[in-house]
What does this fold into?
Amino acid sequence: MSSVAEALRELHRLHVKIGGLHERMARGPRQIAACEQRLATVRQELEQTRETLKRARILADEKQLQLKSREDRIADLKGKLNTAASNREYQTLKEQIEADQQANAVLTDEILELLERIDRMEGDVEQVQKKVKEAEQHLGETRDRVAQENAALQSELEETQKELQSVETALPPDLRREYERVVRARGSDGLSGVSGNSCGVCFQTLTAQMLNELALGKPVFCPSCGAILFVRE
Ligand SMILES: [Zn+2]
It folds into this structure.
């Protein structure tokens, strides 16, 4: 087997490895983006839950004020009962008092219900706060992990690229130019290992003459996809 064939095989392996490293390096930022998205979602949920709680508290305060002012009015009307000038005025006052008492009974029920709801909402806020903390922690951990992984991947990439450059020098100048052209355009698919009698990239069947030339270590290109062919081990 010629050294050119060996070099092509090795170059293909290195290009596949480099492609894989790039893919793994692209995965980290996507994972971070997903964590950031999750955090933004739960932060928004927290804001909404807090806003709902705030509005419920304001409403409860308003209802309590209303209750208190009606209670004051009832006390005032009760005071007037004793000084009623006529039976008719007395009856009117009594009716007003009863109506106010009834309204306040309804209002008291509403306030109790509202306070129970506020209790539950406070629980909801705590739950969502927990989710926010978890999302923040997860994002931090993911950032650290990705930074570590990327440092390792980066150094592996640099090593592999150095290795690639040294193997590239084994190519004759003419082939080297073709090699650079196909690899620039198609990455590792610019080199194709022959499987049986067909191109490993596009599966084009190769002629007997091509296979012969390949066996002699001559540069052969796939007539269909244009990849530089090499014999697999
Ligand atoms: Zn092909």
Notes: The chain is about 80% helix and 5% strand.
